[in-house]
Amino acid sequence: MSLISATPAAAAPELLAALLRQVPFLTEEDIAAFVPLWHKSVRLQRGDFLIRPGQVEHHLYFVRAGTLRIFYPSQTEEICVGFAYGNTLVCSFPSFVAGQPSEYSIQALRKSELIGISRADFSAIVEARPNFARFWRLELERAVMGRIEREIDLLLPEPERRLARLLARSPHLFQLVPKKYIASYLRMTPETLSRLR
Amino acid sequence: MNSRAFLEALHGRVQALHTTVSTDFAPLEAALLNVKPSPTSWSILECLEHLNRYARYYLPQLAKALAQPAGPAPTDFSHSWLGRKSIEAVRPENQKKQKTLARMNPNQSQLSPATIAEFLAHQQQLLALLAQAKTTDLSRKAIPVEFFRLLKLSIGDALEFVVAHQERHVLQAERVRQQLHLELRV
User: Fold this and answer.
1) Is B37 in contact with A90 (Cβ distance < 8 A)?
2) Where is each DinB-like domain found (chain B) (predicted)?
3) What is the C-alpha separation between A74 and A61, in angstroms, rounded?
């Protein structure tokens, strides 16, 4: 059973356009200029990598369906630092913004479908259309807020408080992501997570 | 409890469901209404189609029961044991997952925004049935349970069961809607 071909689910560009129409200040013309720039199409099976450490990845991706984990491979473990799933935009930020080799891996946790826009095309449209500059600023602000929340999580010594904050902030994660990765994200063992839930 | 107050409370709950679905879901594009958070969880339209399948069974059953001539309507009403258990199982506050019968599971079915129009029409029918129920004995055991027809719910049980079940899945659809925005993950 393929989650991509079954049901009248929208194709990735169509879904991206529908989501952009939810942003009140973007016009139909903005959206019509933007969506065709997402040339790259990526389909990943479970376990496939979108980005590996050391690669420079110049695309921003839109996840049409699927779940991915962003992790930092240390010598002893793979530390989950975030997740991407349907309707999210994802990239290796240092790679996309600064052209640096990625330190992180992004790996599909289930069959995933993405489309990508190149850094060059993305920068050009953000320069050309102030509405996209505003859109990108709001997305970046929200991402920084998320990072601050996450930093507070990591400073809390009690695992139950870290869990409570994540449950309040992103309850849907617990439906999408296997527990062992959520445990890694919360910096606790899977056993501790099971005990607390 | 007082029968009149019971029916009025249900009337308000059905109106609230109608408002939520017509203001929050009806304006969304088909591409968004069909988004499934994961392959096995339901889209907004799948949540509503599941409810439509229940309504297609229970609303005609209620109409049939209410069409039968009945004696005077008592001023008081209380749920049967089976009614209380059924309502408890589906009310939104009960976080326990219930197994969905295969014929009631719309996962992977072909749905269009017509599903929303059907849901809203069911709410209008339900409001009419609630008005009709004012002159009946709500304790009359007249509604066979969908998955085991030898068991019967009372008219009052069935009315509240349908409303509570709808609230459960409209809330589920609301949670899906809240995920329908772009979000950058870095």
Assistant:
1) no
2) 25-173
3) 25
